[in-house]
Design a protein that fits this description.
By secondary structure, the protein is an alpha+beta fold. Helix content is 35%, strand content 21%. The chain has two domains: 99 residues, Phosphorylase Kinase, domain 1 (2-Layer Sandwich); 149 residues, Aminoglycoside phosphotransferase (APH), C-terminal lobe (Aminoglycoside 3'-phosphotransferase, Chain: A, domain 2, Alpha-Beta Complex), CATH 3.90.1200.10. The N and C termini lie far apart (40 Å).
Length: 273
């Protein structure tokens, strides 16, 4: 269901906030968000349809991530939410729409796009906080979301024997680690955004996803490989890298991140040769 400005307006009323800046639309207009305020508070409102039946990404994932990791991994706090019914013209049926109110994140995303075209302007302390987060997240409580059959299917599609994949543990992962979802420049303002995909996933999936989105900046890709060598420089890490690369390739095939196509194909060729 594509979100419209009317959906944002409904959320403003439902949560008794006023819009403080221009709205922004997410991937495929599946979300509409805006900075909002209420009695001096700086907040962020995100509105999206709730899948029915629940699929991955799951609609309750942000609340689950906040309960499991709030105070342990820097993220915007989830404060309130509201739901209502709306008509989905594309599917010709009623749909549940959910508005979620977050604390406002003052730190800017590292990149305006998931893929990175340059060396990020972040400090060594920022990289350490990123590595710290990657160690904390897998130990948190999470619920199944990403289908295991999808993992095996994408490995087979890449021409990789999936036998070893059955031995890879599934742990909590952010599941959308890219440069538009990582914010801040220093250790003090490092923040992880957009937890809609939070669920159990193959260990190392976050690191492998970030590497795939870093390939247009070879120096950055090298730093990601170094920072996450424990997750990537193993046979299990190779399989998870293939899976993450194949998932990113589906976005490229749909017309997104066209500049990433050539380096990602080379990356996958090295992993599967």
């Amino acid at each position: 269901m594509r979100m419209r400005k009317d959906d944002l307006a409904h959320g403003l009323v439902a949560l008794d906030v006023h819009q403080d800046g221009p709205e922004r639309y997410g991937f495929g207009d599946a979300t509409v968000s805006a900075p909002v305020g209420r009695t001096g508070e700086a907040l962020w409102l995100r509105v999206a349809a709730v899948p029915a039946p629940p699929l991955w990404p799951r609609p309750d994932a942000p609340a689950e991530a906040w309960r499991a990791l709030g105070g342990r991994v820097p993220m915007p706090g989830l404060l309130e939410r509201a739901e209502w019914q709306a008509w989905d013209a594309e599917k010709e049926r009623a749909a549940t729409v959910r508005a979620q109110l977050y604390a406002y994140c003052t730190a800017a995303a590292v990149s305006a796009t998931p893929d990175l075209h340059h060396i990020p302007d972040v400090s060594d302390g920022w990289w350490r906080r990123l590595a710290d987060a990657s160690r904390v997240i897998p130990g948190a409580a999470a619920w199944p979301g990403m289908p295991k059959r999808m993992f095996l299917r994408y490995l087979e599609r890449a021409g990789v024997d999936p036998t070893g994949a059955h031995r890879i543990p599934w742990v909590a992962q952010h599941c959308d680690w890219h440069w538009a979802n990582l914010a801040g420049r220093d250790a003090d303002d490092f923040t992880v955004l957009d937890w809609e995909g939070y669920s159990l996933a193959p260990a190392g999936f976050d690191a492998a996803t970030l590497l795939a989105y870093s390939l247009l900046s070879p120096d950055t890709a090298a730093r990601v490989r170094e920072a996450f060598a424990d997750a990537l420089a193993t046979e299990a890490g190779r399989l998870v890298q293939v899976f993450a690369g194949m998932l990113v390739m589906t976005a490229i095939d749909a017309g997104h991140h066209p500049g990433l196509a050539a380096p990602l194909r080379s990356h996958l060729a090295r992993l599967t040769s």
